[in-house]
C-alpha cells in the first residue's frame, strides 16, 4: 500500500471544504444580521406600545403627592 498522497488532490479537497465552510459562515452571518434587525424593530414597537400604555395609565390615575403638590390636611377634612 502506497502511503504517498497526491498534493494536488489534497489541495483540491482542502479548497472545496474551505469554500463550503466559508459559504455556510456567510449565510449564518446574514441570518444573524436579519435577526438583529427584526429584533430591533420588534423592540422599538414594544417600547412605543409601552409608552402609549403608560400615557394612558398616567391619564387615568390620580396624581401622586410630590414635593411640589403635597396633600394638605384640608383636602381630606370638611372643615377646611
Q: What is the CA–CA distance across the termini?
A: 110 Å
Largest sheet: none
Rg from alpha-carbon coordinates: 34 Å
The pLDDT mean sits at 86
Unreliable parts = none
**Order of SSEs, N→C?**
H
- Annotation, overall tally of beta strands: 0
- How many separate helices? 1
Oligomer: single chain
Instruction: Assign a percent range to the helix content.
Output: 55-70%
Structural class: mainly alpha
Query: How much of the residues is beta strand, in percent?
Result: under 5%
The coarse overall form would be rod-shaped
Question: Which features characterize this protein?
Answer:
single chain, 80 residues, mainly alpha, 0% strand
